[in-house]
Amino acid sequence: MEFYLLATLALFAGIIYGLIIGIIPAAGATTGLVALFPFIVSLKSVDPYIAVIFIVAVVASSTTGDTFTSVLLGIPGANSSAATMVDGFPLAQQGKATYALSAAVTTSTVNGLIWGSIAFLLMPWYYNFIIMPPTEGGIGQAELFVLCILAFVTVSLVSNKFWVRSILALSLGVFLALVGTDPITASPRFTMGWDFLIGDGASKGISMIPVIAGIFAMPEMILALKNKVLTSTRSATNHTQQLNDGIKISFKEWKLSARGGIIGAIVGFLPGLGGGMSDWLAYGQTVATNPNEKIPFGKGNIKGVIGPEGSNNAQKASAFIPTVLFGIPGAPFAAIVIGLFGAIGFELSLGTDVMNNNLMENSLFFDSLSFGFLASTLITGVICLYLMKYLTAIAYVPYKYYFPVILAFIVWATYTAGFGVYGFENVFLLGVFTVLGLGMRKWKFSRPALMIGFILGDKIEMLGMQFFSMFNIGGYPLVKLTEFFSGKTVGNGRIAMALRDGNDVLQHPVFVVVSVLILVVLVWSFVSKGKVDYS
Amino acid sequence: MKIKSVAFAVATAISTMAVADIELMSPQKPGSGTSVWANIVATEFAKAPALQGENVVISYNPGARDMAGPNKFHTTKRFDDNVIMISHGGNGISYVQENVKYNYKEYDSVCHQNLNIIMSKHKGVNENEGISHAAGSGMVPEGLAIAMMIGGPGKTVDEYIDIFTDKVTWINGLKGSERHLAFTRAELTATRANPAQYIAKVQPLVDEGKVTTWLHHGILDIETGLTKDDPNYLGKRFEDVFEAKWGEAPSGELYSAYALIHSWRDAIQKALWVNKGNPNTAKFRQACNEMANNPESIAIFNKKIGKYDWVVGEDGNKTIDVLHSLITKDALTALVKFNKEALGLNSVYKPEMVSGEVVTTTSETKEGFWNSLFK
């Protein structure tokens, strides 16, 4: 009885904390969990399963909380809601904040529940799928490479109508992603001698938080403060009508919502892709599949809210699968979750629980995970819809009153991301990216394009190196292509490796399907060019 | 009453954040290999009677390819008597061939685990016809071992480099668990694992008959400076497997480079350090000794990491002396050459590292504008 009481307390505490941390600009599950690390670890002495429920509740509710600042203030909470902002914020400026938010929350909640249930039900079978040979329909390194390319190409649709500037922004994003450690030489790359930018050697040198806060959040805040624009253009009327309309439209556009959910689930489900791209990918497909809209995307089209919101909770849910089973972070927050679970006694990568027994056979652990995620997703959705009238009130408060508070939170979130080693450096970068964001906004360079380049740049580089060294196409070893660039003959042993059975990518069903999709989307993107009026 | 426990936990957390009695500095983010090990150690270490219930907390210090934490310890934290630096094998490799600020000669060993790395390959794979393995700066010993296993005895460093570039597909960008998945799917034909990873991820494949344990790098014997067999994987020491294949033991410059770099990585694969002159050194060593002899702790380490001894106190310092004695001019030259030309790594030959010469801390090297700005 006492356990259930504590579990409920932990659930609600996690929901409330997650909502708050989600609403704080630039913060999100990652920042929130890092900030409470010692507290969560100390919960182990109470009951480690209580800590599991708390952690999962923070993750699930922060995703929904993210949406509020994106829509209401035009500043994303964390990367999971940046795409929602593109159409959500214009809707809020048109006095339709409740409409946008209720559609977003409903879509997000429904997809979170569906994909959360599927993810936790599928967990026992996931291992068999993920080790399935690519020739039998499994996903290997070649498939991950083309999936990343697909995301890159699809999201190019998000580029604004000034497509040359979008390509420049995309290129800058890719360059920023490559700052850090050269994966071949293990030496610093584009770091200007600054140790901070070397990173951990396994991921990009510049962390996500100062980039997203500087590029998206700070420019909107500064301009809103300067121009005092937000309050005068909004209307608080018809709240109930908007709430109902938002819920209705999210069900009416169920196909769009489901597609977003599927995209989010796949991205979270696949180990090694990371979660940052799922909402942009979902937004890209929304734009691509709705070519003749009366309201242009970027100007307050509700479909631009439903698409990405379908993906973000689904992605969070399915990201738990590779995280729990293999200790592979399925999203940025998942790396912290792995650390926290380890600190409270659940060694995900070693597969043992607090009693040093096999974690996979611990049903209470999996029950705590699924209960924590599903219950918090549902309760968060209900709370948000019920309290929306009050939560949206912030949109009608002049910026000057809460600008200092939000600024303090952003700086805190950015500092925390440096783990106390590089906190000041991160805050410095926040300043740099704020200037960049202001410039991009003024001169209409696509900020989403920069973000996608930044999210995917290093992944495509890594997966590309693997693709061109490990596989062949129809008997032609791709490693031979490197001879054109290096001028050195590739050794027989390396060619033999690329020609091994199962390494012909034309015999990989998923590779072939995704490659065809890339071609289709590529042609489409050239024909349609930029479709989104947002920079 | 658990409600009271919650209140106690909150109070503990607040006090923990305010005052940390003993700080273990992990060089990685939460969830990474060494941080996972640190979690286990922190729990068991805190049980030692010598610490009299003092609080043990972990601080996470990721960055600069895991060099930021040890660098931070060296430049700012080592004079704090309650701070213990954790290092891993990669820090040992970087120390030998990169410009770092930390300097093991200036620290006292509290204790360390002389662990091992085990290499496996898929059944039926003949390395002489070609082999694929994940790349990375921490994989240098594996690269050297593969080159020698394919090339056999009596080759020059240049010949080994040619053999490696001809036969070995050295794949970049595969992180820990992704590497294991790629190996499980047979996209990689060979891989390596530390003892904990081996138990969790490779042993099941061996049991299924898909994979064979190829070789391991052995355990450094600080009395002789040579490696001895690992009781967990008897008969699979690199030297033994090499001799079984080629009829004679490995030797030559590249073998010296191999002995040097795998020892620097594996002999201090997981280690605790304090600054020389730290007044708490004896207490920490005693606590480590108590942990290493606590049956409950031993059972946990055995299950999660394998049966490996702890090296406590002065033996730890002796290990560092032995490791420095392995750094000869020929070995270091061969190592840097192989790294650059076969593995593509940007290794640095540091003449001051060679045995018999004065070892100076590289913190005196030029800092650069940005590092100085945020110093």
Please provide a written account of the structure.
The complex is a heterodimer of chains A (535) and B (375). In chain A, 67% of the residues lie in helices and 1% in strands. Chain A has 22 helices and four strands. Chain A has helices at residues 2-23, 29-35, 37-42, 48-73, 82-93, 97-130, 141-155, 163-178, 208-227, 239-252, 254-269, 278-289, 303-326, 332-343, 363-386, 388-391, 399-416, 423-442, 447-470, 482-486, 492-498, 509-528, and strands at residues 180-181, 188-189, 472-473, 476-477. The longest helix of chain A is centred in the first third of the chain and has 34 residues, at 97-130. Chain A is globular and about 70 Å long. The relative contact order of chain A is 0.18. The model of chain A has no long low-confidence stretch (mean pLDDT 84). Chain B folds into two domains: 2-114 and 267-325 and 357-364, 3-Layer(aba) Sandwich (D-Maltodextrin-Binding Protein, domain 2); 118-264, D-Maltodextrin-Binding Protein, domain 2 (3-Layer(aba) Sandwich). In chain B, strand 1 (22-26), helix 2 and strand 2 (56-60) form a beta-alpha-beta unit. Classes of the chains: A mainly alpha (535), B alpha/beta (375). The interface between A and B is large, with 85 and 81 residues.
